[in-house]
Design a protein that fits this description.
about 250 residues, alpha/beta, Rossmann fold, Dihydrodipicolinate Reductase, domain 2, 6-stranded parallel sheet, 5-stranded mixed sheet, 8 helices, elongated, binds NADP nicotinamide-adenine-dinucleotide phosphate
């Protein structure tokens, strides 16, 4: 049984707490300054009973949370993004404190495996000139940014395997795409939680590979898997590295 401290008890924190018992985890403490019934601050006393902390808070506070938690010698899983500029500083802190640390911009196990499928598909279709490739993503109308971070990662995966394409174009095109350009479009509307489609297309046929998010459950399951995996580890890891270790 892995004992958890949840840092941030919003939509993700609540989902993780709900699923924890089914994943051999127990939530022993919660830090969220917006909720009176939980701890407002990270300190040694609050973290004392936890094996691993999980942060799904806010980009504006995550760096401070990371610094405090790691300095207190606790293993930490971080799903909150927005601190990438400080990656080297945190790596050094993790090494000097002898803690375990795992982070990722997308904790969906399915999306991570989808990335692997896309990498393989790109390698094989690249060998046949008849096939062109393109992509598109759809997200709900509240999403502020486009393209999604995941769309950028998927485009880079294709470009990394392709000998014919070397740049991605996410903006609208008022011209024909150049052969070396991968066009990746973004659609915003409705309540779609997140759909990413990659297509390999020839005169003869179309092969479409789709990842469709159904709910936040996928992210929460990924975070709980990470916490269990990290419990007795030291070092700095990404979510993709953990999946690689499990798959290989
Ligand atoms: N890596 C992934 O796979 C993944 C998946 C989903 C979401 N995310 C990211 O994870 C973060 C959380 O997502 P969410 O949907 O759960 O957001 P949310 O519903 O807004 O929850 C965040 C919670 O953290 C609280 N908080 C604010 N400051 C804090 C602090 N100093 N310490 C602890 N908690 C604090 C917030 O309180 P207030 O409301 O008062 O600010 C809120 O209750 C977002 O940045 C999101 O983009 C990542």
């Amino acid at each position: 049984m892995t004992k958890l401290c949840l840092i941030g008890y919003g939509k993700m924190g609540k989902m993780i707490a709900e699923l924890a018992p089914s994943q051999d985890c127990e939530v022993v403490s919660i830090v969220d300054p917006s909720l009176a019934q939980h701890h407002a601050l990270i300190n040694a006393e609050v973290l004392a009973g936890a094996d691993v902390c999980i942060d799904f808070s806010h980009p504006s506070v995550v760096l401070a949370n990371i610094r405090q938690t790691v300095a207190l010698g606790k293993n930490l899983v971080v799903g909150t993004t927005g601190w990438n500029a400080h990656l080297e500083e945190i790596k050094t802190l993790v090494q000097s404190t002898g803690t375990g640390f795992l982070h990722g911009a997308n904790f969906s196990i399915g999306m991570n495996l989808f990335q692997r499928v896309i990498a393989y598909a790109s390698t094989v279709f690249d060998k046949f000139e008849a096939y062109d490739s393109f992509g598109y993503e759809i997200h709900h109308r509240q999403k502020a940014d486009s393209p999604s971070g995941t769309a950028i990662e998927l485009a880079n995966t294709i470009l990394g395997q392709s000998t014919r394409k070397n740049s991605a174009v996410f903006e609208k095109l008022d011209r024909r795409p150049e052969p070396q350009e991968l066009h990746f479009a973004s659609v915003r509307g409705g309540y779609v939680p997140g759909t990413h489609v990659l297509a390999f297309d020839s005169e003869a046929d179309t092969i479409e590979l789709t990842h469709r998010v159904r709910s936040r459950v996928g992210f929460a399951m990924g975070a709980l898997l990470s916490a269990r995996w990290l419990q007795d580890k030291k070092g700095f890891f990404t979510f993709a590295e953990m999946i690689s270790e499990i798959v290989c």
